[in-house]
Write a structure and sequence with these properties.
- The model is unreliable at 10-25, 183-189 and 596-603 (pLDDT under 50).
- This protein has helices spanning 2-19, 50-57, 76-83, 138-151, 165-169, 172-182, 211-218, 229-243, 273-289, 302-316, 324-348, 356-377, 384-429, 436-453, 459-503, 507-526, 530-533, 537-550, 557-583, 595-602, and strands spanning 33-39, 46-48, 63-69, 105-108, 112-116, 119-128, 154-160, 196-203, 248-254, 294-295, 298-299.
- Helix content is 58%, strand content 10%.
- The protein is rod-shaped, with a radius of gyration of 50 Å.
- The protein has 3 domains: 33-223 and 235-319, Rossmann fold (3-Layer(aba) Sandwich), CATH 3.40.50; 328-408, no CATH class; 420-570, no CATH class.
- The strands form 2 sheets. Strands 1, 2, 3, 4, 5, 6, 7, 8 and 9 form a 9-stranded mixed sheet that branches. It has a two-stranded antiparallel sheet with strand order 10-11.
- The protein is an alpha/beta fold.
- The chain has 20 helices and 11 strands.
- Keywords: GTP-binding, Hydrolase, Membrane, Nucleotide-binding, Signal, Transmembrane, Transmembrane helix.
- GO terms for molecular function: GTP binding; GTPase activity.
- It comes from Helianthus annuus.
- It holds the Pfam family GBP_C.
């Protein structure tokens, strides 16, 4: 019984787990801090945390994010609680030990609803793990900083006392992002709008230089007479940050109380009133610069923001060191696919095969159109060159496929035409009535058809094969032509002798047939071989007459030989049997005399 109860309880827990959104237990109270990004076990890369993502994913309004970054133990979590008007026990966890309290990136689960330029916006506040804490690599800090820079609409750079050289160096990623993404042509959608950089200096005293003077001084060039590469690099960052001046502001906060370890237990009345006043001013400054997060020209709701976070995290974890290049590749990935599709669609419209020159011309036009489209849409300045090279490589690979397809289709088409011509030449070799005119007409028609229809890279090869095949066929036909014609004429003369003598008894027909037979037989014996006959003018006349009778554009005797022979036989039978019976022996033709009359005369 107890086992059954345990199984029922286990099944109930599983069903409850599966019914919870995103595969986790449903969160009833979002008025707390949740992790959205956590370190991996090696503390070098980042991974997503489902609890915090659920808190963000449920939001349907446009989202803005305020992130606080800075060294560990610099009061970032306390500052965020102050901005949210929360105590340490309600809001982000605040630690007083040497190790960092916050791991990864945390979000306050309940956004602050604001009306920004008439748009209802949900503002999330993000707490980040501090820099330079014990047991972490610099690469991990860079990933945290990079992710906060990309996600946030307002980036609060929380620094104690003053601005150090290392603090400026850490902004190198923000500078690279500015150079890659924020310098787009006006009127085009940016990959994501830059976060407003807020220098927040927390110090014990406010006398002396103003915070703006401190920032200006920190961003001033450092002399580098010895050519130190590190100083040159930091000076370049200073130059870029100075250019980004319109996108940054500075603010200072005095210390809220001398006893810092007791800050969480003190109420506003017990804090330094100058701090309270400045804190309220800071809230207004932050509110004034908050804008919805814009990615590729549109604001993001909760689900879109989470998808954006996943994409950025994938890019930052891609290499050993996070880089803007990996971000550029991620943002340009879909654009590359779209531009490659433009090239593919343009090339697919072409009906293969076509000539190599035409294919190359269409390729160049399609490639130019694709690269132009990428140039109008791509993200990044310097690192975009790699994306352009990648697109060009993909286009080159696709073009090779089209070249191979064109070669295959060209070979297939030309082979079909070659085979048809070869069959045609074979048919002309075995004509029932040999005709040079008909052979030449078929030869010309086949050659013209091949030249007109066969196109593409295989045309040259098949043209050479066609020339050899046609020359061979013509040579063979000419060789057999005279011999076949001679045999035909000999047989024809003998047939006409029989027809003239015994069938129609037409004397002139018989005489003409005997003359032709005698000429053919005696001439070849007088001049030793039939070949000598073929150069005789009389033979040429016979050939011309034969060609005129056998083939013309109007009548092809070879095609109609059987039908014509059949009709002639019918007419001959009719004339021999019926017409003579009807009209008697009277005829205009010189026919042989009747045998009975010959006997009467002899008698």
């Amino acid at each position: 019984m107890s086992k059954n109860l345990r199984w029922i309880g286990f099944v109930f827990v599983i069903l409850y787990f599966l019914s919870s959104p995103c595969g986790v237990f449903a969160i009833d109270d979002f008025r707390q801090a949740f992790p959205i990004v956590e370190p991996d076990p090696g503390h070098t890369k980042l991974r997503l945390s489902s609890e915090g993502l659920e808190a963000i994913r449920r939001i349907t309004n446009p989202i803005a994010a305020v992130a606080v970054i800075g060294p560990y133990r610099s009061g970032k979590s306390f500052t965020l609680n102050q901005l949210l008007s929360l105590s340490c026990y309600e809001g982000f966890g605040v630690g007083h030990m040497r190790d960092t309290k916050t791991k990864g990136i945390w979000v306050w689960g309940t956004p602050v609803e604001m009306d920004i330029n008439g748009v209802k916006t949900s503002v999330f506040y993000l707490d980040t793990e501090g820099f330079e804490s014990v047991g972490k690599s610099n690469v991990y800090d860079d990933r945290i900083f990079a992710l906060a820079t990309v996600l946030s609409s307002v980036l609060i750079y929380n620094l104690p006392e003053t601005i150090r050289e290392a603090d400026i160096s850490r902004l190198s990623f923000a500078v690279e992002l500015a150079e890659e993404f924020y310098g787009r042509v006006e009127g085009q959608d940016v990959a994501f709008e830059p976060a407003k950089l807020l220098w927040l200096i927390q110090r014990d005293f406010l006398q002396g230089k103003s915070v703006k003077e401190m920032v200006d001084e920190a961003l001033r060039h450092v002399p580098n007479a010895n050519g130190d590469k590190n100083i040159d690099q930091v000076n370049q960052i200073r130059d870029s940050l100075a250019i980004m001046g319109d996108n940054s502001t500075a603010f200072s906060l005095p210390q809220p109380h001398l006893q810092r370890t007791k800050l969480c237990d003190l109420k506003d009345e017990e804090l330094d009133q100058s701090y309270v006043r400045k804190r309220e001013q800071l809230k207004e400054v932050v509110k004034s610069v908050i804008r919805p997060k814009i990615v590729q020209g549109k604001s993001l709701n909760g689900k879109e923001f989470v998808a954006f976070l996943e994409k950025i995290l994938e890019a930052l974890n891609k290499g050993e060191i996070p880089s803007t290049g990996s971000l550029v590749e991620i943002f340009n990935k879909k654009i590359l696919e779209k531009c490659l599709k433009i090239y593919e669609d343009s090339m697919t419209k072409v009906t293969l095969p076509i000539s190599e020159e035409s294919l190359q011309s269409i390729h160049e036009a399609s490639r130019t159109e694709s690269l132009k489209s990428f140039d109008e849409q791509h993200f990044g300045r310097h690192h975009a060159k790699k994306s352009v090279e990648a697109l060009d490589e993909d286009i080159a690979k696709m073009f090779k496929n089209f070249v191979m397809a064109n070669q295959y289709q060209s070979s297939k088409l030309c082979e079909e035409l070659y085979t048809l011509c070869e069959d045609k030449m074979d048919q002309l070799q075995v004509l029932r009535l040999p005709s040079m005119a008909k052979f030449n007409a078929g030869f010309l028609q086949c050659n013209q058809s091949f030249e007109k229809v066969c196109v593409g890279p295989s045309k040259t090869t098949y043209e050479q094969r066609m020339v050899k095949m046609m020359e061979k066929s013509k040579s063979l036909f000419i060789k057999e032509y005279n011999h076949k014609l001679f045999n035909w004429l000999v047989a024809f003369s003998l047939v006409m002798v029989i027809v003239g003598r015994f069938v129609i008894k037409f004397i002139l027909l018989e005489i003409g047939a005997w003359i032709l037979f005698i000429f053919l037989e005696t001439y070849t014996r007088m001049f030793w071989s039939p070949e000598s006959l073929y150069y005789n003018p009389v033979w040429h006349g016979i050939v011309a007459t034969w060609e005129t009778l056998v083939y013309s554009p109007i009548l092809d005797l070879d095609r109609w030989a059987i039908q014509i022979g059949f009709m002639a036989s019918i007419l001959l039978i009719y004339w021999r049997c019926f017409r003579r019976r009807k009209h008697g022996s009277h005829s205009l033709l010189p026919l042989y005399a009747n045998n009975s009359k010959v006997r009467d005369r002899s008698e």
